[in-house]
Amino acid sequence: MTKIWNESGFVNDDPWVVETEETKAGSNEKAILGLDAFLEQAATGALGLGVLIAPADDVTRLAPHLGQIALVALAFPAFNDGRAFSHASLLRSRLGFQGEVRAVGDVLIDQIPLMLRCGIDSFAVTNATAIKRLSEARLPGIANHYQPTAKPSTDAKSYSWRRVS
After folding, report:
1. How far apart are CA 156 and CA 165, in angstroms?
2. What spans are recorded as compositionally biased (Polar residues) (predicted)?
Protein backbone atom coordinates (compact mmCIF):
# COMPACT_ATOMS: atom_id res chain seq x y z
CA MET A 1 0.00 0.00 0.00
CA THR A 2 1.42 3.35 -1.04
CA LYS A 3 0.85 6.40 1.12
CA ILE A 4 1.77 9.95 0.19
CA TRP A 5 3.50 11.89 2.96
CA ASN A 6 4.75 15.47 3.19
CA GLU A 7 5.87 17.55 6.17
CA SER A 8 2.24 18.27 7.04
CA GLY A 9 1.48 14.54 7.35
CA PHE A 10 -0.17 11.91 5.19
CA VAL A 11 -2.15 13.15 2.20
CA ASN A 12 -5.63 11.81 1.50
CA ASP A 13 -7.03 11.67 -2.03
CA ASP A 14 -3.80 12.39 -3.88
CA PRO A 15 -4.75 12.62 -7.58
CA TRP A 16 -1.37 11.66 -9.07
CA VAL A 17 -0.79 8.25 -10.67
CA VAL A 18 2.47 7.07 -12.23
CA GLU A 19 1.33 5.74 -15.58
CA THR A 20 2.67 2.42 -16.80
CA GLU A 21 1.42 0.00 -19.43
CA GLU A 22 -0.68 -1.69 -16.73
CA THR A 23 -1.76 1.43 -14.83
CA LYS A 24 -3.48 4.44 -16.38
CA ALA A 25 -4.89 7.53 -14.70
CA GLY A 26 -8.66 7.49 -14.26
CA SER A 27 -11.10 10.34 -14.79
CA ASN A 28 -10.46 11.91 -11.35
CA GLU A 29 -6.71 11.30 -11.46
CA LYS A 30 -3.71 13.05 -12.96
CA ALA A 31 -1.05 11.18 -14.91
CA ILE A 32 2.65 11.23 -14.14
CA LEU A 33 4.29 10.53 -17.49
CA GLY A 34 7.76 9.25 -18.32
CA LEU A 35 10.19 11.88 -19.60
CA ASP A 36 9.75 11.20 -23.33
CA ALA A 37 5.93 11.04 -23.10
CA PHE A 38 5.98 14.22 -21.03
CA LEU A 39 8.09 16.06 -23.61
CA GLU A 40 5.61 15.05 -26.33
CA GLN A 41 2.71 16.44 -24.27
CA ALA A 42 4.64 19.57 -23.31
CA ALA A 43 5.27 20.33 -26.99
CA THR A 44 1.50 20.70 -27.43
CA GLY A 45 1.40 23.38 -24.72
CA ALA A 46 -0.41 21.26 -22.12
CA LEU A 47 -0.28 22.64 -18.55
CA GLY A 48 -0.32 21.01 -15.09
CA LEU A 49 1.59 17.93 -16.16
CA GLY A 50 3.40 15.39 -14.01
CA VAL A 51 6.70 13.87 -15.11
CA LEU A 52 8.64 10.84 -13.85
CA ILE A 53 12.41 11.16 -13.91
CA ALA A 54 14.26 7.85 -13.93
CA PRO A 55 17.81 7.70 -12.53
CA ALA A 56 19.43 7.70 -15.99
CA ASP A 57 17.29 10.57 -17.35
CA ASP A 58 18.72 14.01 -18.02
CA VAL A 59 16.70 16.32 -15.77
CA THR A 60 17.98 19.41 -17.60
CA ARG A 61 15.74 18.44 -20.55
CA LEU A 62 12.88 19.81 -18.44
CA ALA A 63 14.32 23.35 -18.39
CA PRO A 64 12.23 24.81 -21.26
CA HIS A 65 9.02 23.31 -19.82
CA LEU A 66 9.21 24.12 -16.10
CA GLY A 67 6.15 26.38 -16.28
CA GLN A 68 4.03 23.46 -17.52
CA ILE A 69 4.99 21.05 -14.74
CA ALA A 70 2.85 20.62 -11.62
CA LEU A 71 4.81 17.68 -10.19
CA VAL A 72 8.17 16.03 -10.78
CA ALA A 73 8.38 12.46 -9.48
CA LEU A 74 11.93 11.22 -8.94
CA ALA A 75 12.41 7.47 -9.11
CA PHE A 76 14.38 5.72 -6.38
CA PRO A 77 14.39 2.14 -7.75
CA ALA A 78 16.64 0.85 -4.97
CA PHE A 79 17.93 2.24 -1.67
CA ASN A 80 21.49 2.29 -2.99
CA ASP A 81 20.71 4.35 -6.13
CA GLY A 82 21.11 7.99 -5.15
CA ARG A 83 21.04 9.66 -8.56
CA ALA A 84 17.60 11.14 -7.79
CA PHE A 85 19.20 13.16 -4.96
CA SER A 86 21.24 14.92 -7.65
CA HIS A 87 18.14 15.37 -9.81
CA ALA A 88 16.31 17.06 -6.92
CA SER A 89 19.25 19.34 -6.23
CA LEU A 90 19.53 20.31 -9.90
CA LEU A 91 15.81 21.00 -10.15
CA ARG A 92 15.88 23.34 -7.17
CA SER A 93 19.26 25.06 -7.35
CA ARG A 94 20.13 25.27 -11.06
CA LEU A 95 16.75 25.11 -12.77
CA GLY A 96 14.84 27.02 -10.08
CA PHE A 97 11.84 24.68 -10.10
CA GLN A 98 9.28 25.80 -7.51
CA GLY A 99 6.65 23.07 -7.95
CA GLU A 100 6.22 19.81 -6.07
CA VAL A 101 9.03 17.25 -6.20
CA ARG A 102 8.06 13.75 -5.07
CA ALA A 103 10.21 10.71 -4.29
CA VAL A 104 8.74 7.45 -5.58
CA GLY A 105 10.05 3.91 -5.35
CA ASP A 106 12.21 2.56 -2.55
CA VAL A 107 11.74 5.41 -0.04
CA LEU A 108 13.19 4.48 3.36
CA ILE A 109 12.80 6.38 6.63
CA ASP A 110 16.54 7.01 7.01
CA GLN A 111 16.71 8.78 3.64
CA ILE A 112 13.74 11.13 4.08
CA PRO A 113 15.59 13.88 6.03
CA LEU A 114 18.27 13.95 3.32
CA MET A 115 15.62 13.99 0.60
CA LEU A 116 13.96 16.96 2.31
CA ARG A 117 17.30 18.80 2.36
CA CYS A 118 17.71 18.23 -1.39
CA GLY A 119 14.35 19.82 -2.12
CA ILE A 120 11.96 16.87 -2.25
CA ASP A 121 8.53 17.87 -0.90
CA SER A 122 6.50 14.67 -0.84
CA PHE A 123 7.07 10.96 -0.70
CA ALA A 124 5.25 7.92 -2.05
CA VAL A 125 6.00 5.55 0.82
CA THR A 126 5.42 1.79 0.68
CA ASN A 127 7.90 0.63 3.32
CA ALA A 128 5.95 -0.48 6.43
CA THR A 129 8.61 0.77 8.86
CA ALA A 130 8.72 4.16 7.17
CA ILE A 131 4.92 4.47 7.23
CA LYS A 132 4.82 3.57 10.93
CA ARG A 133 7.58 6.02 11.89
CA LEU A 134 6.08 8.83 9.81
CA SER A 135 2.65 8.27 11.37
CA GLU A 136 4.31 8.57 14.79
CA ALA A 137 6.14 11.76 13.67
CA ARG A 138 9.46 10.03 14.34
CA LEU A 139 11.68 11.39 11.59
CA PRO A 140 15.40 10.76 12.08
CA GLY A 141 17.84 13.57 11.52
CA ILE A 142 20.99 15.45 12.37
CA ALA A 143 20.83 18.84 14.09
CA ASN A 144 23.93 20.39 12.49
CA HIS A 145 24.95 20.37 8.83
CA TYR A 146 28.13 21.38 7.03
CA GLN A 147 26.52 22.45 3.78
CA PRO A 148 23.55 24.57 2.75
CA THR A 149 20.70 22.92 0.88
CA ALA A 150 17.79 23.59 -1.42
CA LYS A 151 15.60 23.97 1.65
CA PRO A 152 16.91 26.76 3.87
CA SER A 153 17.16 26.19 7.59
CA THR A 154 14.90 28.15 9.91
CA ASP A 155 17.73 28.31 12.45
CA ALA A 156 20.87 30.06 11.18
CA LYS A 157 22.95 28.34 13.87
CA SER A 158 22.05 24.87 12.60
CA TYR A 159 24.73 25.14 9.92
CA SER A 160 28.40 24.59 10.52
CA TRP A 161 30.62 27.45 11.65
CA ARG A 162 32.04 27.38 8.11
CA ARG A 163 28.74 28.63 6.68
CA VAL A 164 27.72 31.15 9.35
CA SER A 165 28.74 34.67 8.38
Report:
1. 10
2. 146-157
